[in-house]
Amino acid sequence: MARVRMADVAREAGVSVSTVSLALSGAPSRIPEATRDIVRRTAAEIGYRPNSLARGLRTRRTDTIGLVSDQIATTPFAGLMLRGAQQAAREAGRILLLVDTEGDVEAETEAIRALADHQVDTMIYASMWHREVDRPAALPPGTVFLDCVPRGGGPAVVPDETQGAGLAMAELLGAGHTRIGYVGADEVLHPEVPAAAGLRRTAYRSALESAGIAPGPALEAQGAISAPGGRAAATTLLDRPEGERPTALFCFNDRMAAGAIAAARAHGLEIPADVSIVGFDDQPSLAADLDPPLTTIALPHLEMGAWAVRTAVRLLEAEETGAEEGTTLIPCALVRRGTVAAPTAR
User: Fold this and answer.
1) Superfamily, domain 64-159+301-330
2) What secondary structure letter does DSSP report for 155?
3) Where are the beta strands (DSSP E) in 49-110?
4) Where would I find the HTH lacI-type domain in this sequence (predicted)?
5) CB count, 10 Å around CB of 265?
6) Among the listed residues 64, 120, 114, 127, the one whose alpha carbon sits nearest the alpha carbon of residue 93
7) Which CATH number applies to 161-299?
């Protein structure tokens, strides 16, 4: 099937080729708006699509955005980041080109070079975990960082971990709990998550202090970021004598919360009648499917992905590098389900 050309649009609309060009480009001109509407309508009706290569040669832009990630595309956990980025790219008339490196440094360098060779207009550097990163030397000016913060500064977006943990603690304190344990991530086992781990733990302690409750090591335990790790850490806390045992647990993430639920049941405790549990992340295919469904904090993955693309486009159109821009925090949301209740008399 022959490609519909600009000359075909001009013939059908009864105007010159130059008029079609100006009308479809949106460039300032003396063409009446009614004529522009006729040209646009005709182009749509006969299936005309602009030649992106020719336009790119004129504007020096390809309307593409490169997104380099470590392992976001290979896990369902952070898929909402990609969905938010894709939606924002479509709204901006851009195409998102994704490369997942699975954390391989050499693959990352090659991916950045390949995207540059394909002349993407700008790039987004994304991480599976909220963490600090060294800026790869090959990244172009104006790169936006998604779910990570570049050392040395630059435009970045991450979840508001402090605000999210505050919501979790407010839910438990509001239910009447005063002995709240923290099932945290072992930062020695998981050096890749120090930002999230530290911020959530600090917010837990601050919430207790604000409520007039003294935090202490007796109500904190760390473990591997997994269901077995959460079970082991929660067991340490639930092994305490009944009068000292926590009546609620705030867990670093949903996988550890799943382990905490198992630990509570092994102690003969009912959830939430005997112990309340709150997780973090609202992980798909986990939090809502637990028994009972887990009350948790949802990470703003969709909003973060959209923010990254919109910021990258804004910097591109303003021809700015974003060097002076800092880190934007996106609020988290509380998702109430079935694991929080008031503490029982016992």
Assistant:
1) Response regulator (3.40.50.2300)
2) S
3) 64-69, 95-100
4) 4-59
5) 15
6) 64
7) 3.40.50.2300
CA distance linking residue 297 with residue 46, whole number of Å = 49
d(CA 328, CA 308): 10
For residue 218 the two structure tokens come to 């007796």
Cα–Cα distance, 203 to 163 (Å, whole number): 8
The two three-digit tokens of residue 237, written as one number: 């806390």
Q: What pLDDT, in 10s, does the model give residues 29-40?
A: 678 888 888 988
pLDDT per residue over 116-144, tens digit each? 888 899 999 999 889 899 999 889 888 99
pTM score, two decimals? 0.80
Residues in the chain: 346
Strand ranges for the chain from DSSP E: 64-69, 95-100, 122-133, 144-150, 156-159, 180-185, 220-223, 248-251, 276-278, 296-298, 327-330, 333-335
What are the CA-CA distances from residue 328 to residues 128, 129, 149, 304, 306 (Å)? Answer: 17, 16, 10, 9, 13
pLDDT band at 71; cut points 50, 70, 90: confident
Of 160, 113, 153, 142, which is closest to residue 308 (Cα–Cα)? Answer: 142
Q: Retrieve residue 238's tokens.
A: 């639930």
Residue pair 248/177 in contact (Cβ under 8 Å)? The answer is yes
Cα separation, 64 vs 69, whole angstroms: 16
Q: Residue ranges per domain, the chain?
A: 6-50, 64-159+301-330, 161-299
3-state secondary structure of 146: strand
Closest CA to 105 of 74, 137, 147: 137
As a three-state string, the secondary structure of 198-219 is HHHHHHHHHHHHHCCCCCCHHH
